[in-house]
Every structure is written in C-alpha cells, then in structure tokens.
Amino acid sequence: MPEYTKRANELGVTTQAAYEAATLYYQQGLNNDEVNALSVETLKMARIAGLDAAEATDRMTNALRGFNMALDEQSAQRVDDVYSELAANTASNVDEISTAMTKVASLAHSANMEFETTAAFLA
After folding, report:
1. How large is the average pLDDT for residues 17-40?
2. DSSP 8-state code for residue 30
3. Cα–Cα distance, 100 to 34 (Å, whole number)
C-alpha cells in the first residue's frame, strides 16, 4: 500500500487508480518490474487524456500488444510520447487517438505498419 500511495502522490492520481492499474497488469501475468514500469506510464497517459486507470491500462495494453512491443517502460514511454506529440500538433487528443488505436492496432501491425505511422494516420 505505501508503494501505491507514493506512486499516486508522485503522479497526482488517487491511490485507488495506482492500485487499479497495477492490478490489471498483474492479472495479465506480468512481473513486478514490468508492472511498476507500465503502471507509471499508464497513469501518466490517464492523467493526460482524462481517463480512469482501467481504461488507460486497456488502451496502453492494446497499443503495446497490438504492435508486438516489449512490455517495458521504454515502449510505454514511446506510446505516451507519440500520443502526446500528435495531440499537441493535430486537432485530436490522446483520448481520441488511443480509442482509435484500439480498433486498428493488430490489423495495422499485420499490414507491416509502424506504430508511429498508424497513430499519425489516426490523428
């Protein structure tokens, strides 16, 4: 519990949100290091997009698994950075881009599209 409270305070989210994101990653069979790294980046995305932790976890998981990216901090940061950069430079926002990505990620990856290219088309 102290770990979730610390993470929540650092990211400006509720302790429940920190716990919820971690729980969903544990349910996917990830280890502690993976859960900690992904939870932080997921909670950042949730905060930017105005999503709850469960929805942000679903969208992060969809992007990472849809494009066969590693389930680690670097890949999660890549997702956050791409979504945020596109939201800043287009008429779309992180919520819209991540929602659209849930519909096309695996298909786009199957068609050999890159994550960044797919996100740019969606934006």
Report:
1. 93
2. -
3. 25
